[in-house]
Write a structure and sequence with these properties.
There is one protein chain. By secondary structure, this protein is of the alpha+beta class. It folds into two domains: about 35-95 and about 240-415, DD-peptidase/beta-lactamase superfamily (Beta-lactamase, 3-Layer(aba) Sandwich); about 105-225, Beta-lactamase (3-Layer(aba) Sandwich). It is built from twelve helices and 17 strands. It has an eight-stranded antiparallel β-sheet. Helix 2 runs antiparallel to helix 12 (about 405-415). The radius of gyration is 21 Å and the shape is globular. It starts with a helix and ends in a 10-residue tail after the last helix.
């Protein structure tokens, strides 16, 4: 898959179901704590296969410190007739982003930077950024100096102003020409190329999903003095015993690797294996912060459980409780009203590399969940969330492109029940 297509697929992960507002008195009462119904979840996964939205699905749920659900349906690889199993390795795309955020916030805990420091203090290429300001009389693009520096907080909450793939402005065209996320670029080179592209808006003015998390990865390298993948492996994956999660997978694991499926003309077409495996079975120069990891249900569930446990799992501390709380707290000022497709995720704000639910579901079309949950998903329609109110974590795997938000809607409805609005008092 070409990098522009990958970026477009990652960006399209925001295309979710719209929400509408309903008066509080119109909401149906719901149980305070959801009951995990295995038959209901099994049926939802099987329906995704039956109606052609997925080739294979699997899910793993923990609640109150124990596993309460594992299930799978369909095939990980239809050409090889390989079933979707618990140890299937899937590409998780933007579910890489929370991992990168955790890595960077470990360095914040060590005092390596302040959240509101100018990014250019550590990555000088981001000094003197320009911002697109419309077109002039000759229809040429007009640029003005940024009215303030990009901060580290901006790259953690997607308010830096970066583009992310093709789009309608000259900035998007400049991004495509720069090709910062080509797999042949190092992270340092990717950062330099991105910094040469003008910004879409002044820092802090809007929320726009972007390549900012790849900049986070470059910042981890700069502040830690280690290659990004090595830092993540030694400070997150190994302590959490996430043995199957990596950007570069060993050849011995190819047989466990799920095939990618792309929907064309209403039908799922399995992608050529060699093309699909470019991200994970080649020695690419780029180790992106925003995508590229492949993982298993159990591995990513350990990451999610660490977050639910406020930064600790099985006696190993990854983050301080206060840091997890900060990451899971909405960081968007009310004045940031331009939020692209983020409202399509539901009644949410955005923390540091997570969406954060701020209000109960407002309509039947909105995904079920509880106030205070934090989550993210991936371009191939994968999903995870952490629900502190119900002491619950869920990881959902599928390999369907482009992103299909109906899968998340149906899976969440199966987990919580279609009428769930959250604990009493939300």
């Amino acid at each position: 898959m070409r990098m522009a297509a990958i970026a477009l697929a990652i960006l399209s992960a925001g295309a979710a179901l719209p929400i509408s507002t309903a008066p509080a008195h119109a909401r149906a009462a719901s149980a305070e704590t959801p009951t995990i119904d295995k038959a209901r979840i099994d049926a939802a996964l099987q329906a995704m296969i039956a109606d052609g939205r997925a080739a294979g699905t699997s899910a793993l749920i923990w609640q109150d410190g124990r596993e309460v659900y594992f299930g799978s349906a369909g095939l990980a690889d239809r050409a090889a007739n390989t079933p979707m199993r618990r140890d299937t390795i899937a590409q998780i795309y933007s579910m890489t982003k929370p991992v990168t955020g955790v890595a960077l916030m470990q360095l914040w805990e060590q005092g390596k930077f302040r959240l509101d420091d100018p990014l250019a203090r550590y990555l000088p290429e981001y000094a003197n950024m320009r911002v697109f300001s419309g077109v002039d009389a000759t229809r040429g693009p007009r640029y003005v100096p940024a009215d303030r520096p990009i901060t580290v907080r901006d790259i953690l909450r997607h308010t830096a102003g970066f583009a992310y793939g093709a789009g309608p402005t000259p900035v998007h065209a400049a991004y495509v020409a720069a090709d910062p996320l080509a797999l042949t670029n190092s992270l340092a080179e990717a950062s330099r190329r991105l910094a040469a592209v003008p910004l879409l808006f002044h820092p802090g003015k809007q929320w726009e999903y972007s390549a900012a998390v790849d900049v986070q990865a470059a910042l981890v390298e700069t502040l830690s003095g280690q290659p990004f993948a090595a830092y993540v492996r030694t400070h997150i994956f190994e302590p959490l015993r996430m043995t199957d999660t990596a950007w570069r997978q060993p050849d011995a694991k190819r047989s466990r690797f799920a095939a990618m499926n792309v929907k064309k003309d209403g039908k799922l077409i399995q992608q050529d294996a060699a093309e699909a495996q470019k991200l994970n079975f080649h020695d690419n120069a780029l180790t992106p912060g925003g995508f590229g990891l492949a993982s298993t249900l159990d591995d990513y569930q350990r990451f999610a459980r660490m977050l639910l446990n406020r930064g600790e799992l099985d006696g190993v501390r990854i983050l301080k409780p206060s840091t997890v709380e900060l990451m899971a707290t909405d960081q968007l000022d009310p004045a940031i009203t331009e939020r692209a497709w983020l409202p399509g995720k539901g009644a949410v704000g955005f923390g540091l590399d997570f969406a954060v639910r701020k209000a109960p579901p407002q309509s039947a079309a909105e995904n079920r969940g509880a106030v205070g949950e934090f989550f993210w998903d991936g371009a191939a329609s994968t999903l995870f969330w952490v629900d502190p109110a119900n002491k619950l974590t869920a990881v959902f795997f599928v390999q369907t492109m482009p992103y299909d938000g109906t899968l998340h809607h149906d899976f969440r409805a199966a987990v919580y029940g279609r009428d769930y609005k959250g604990p009493a008092g939300d």
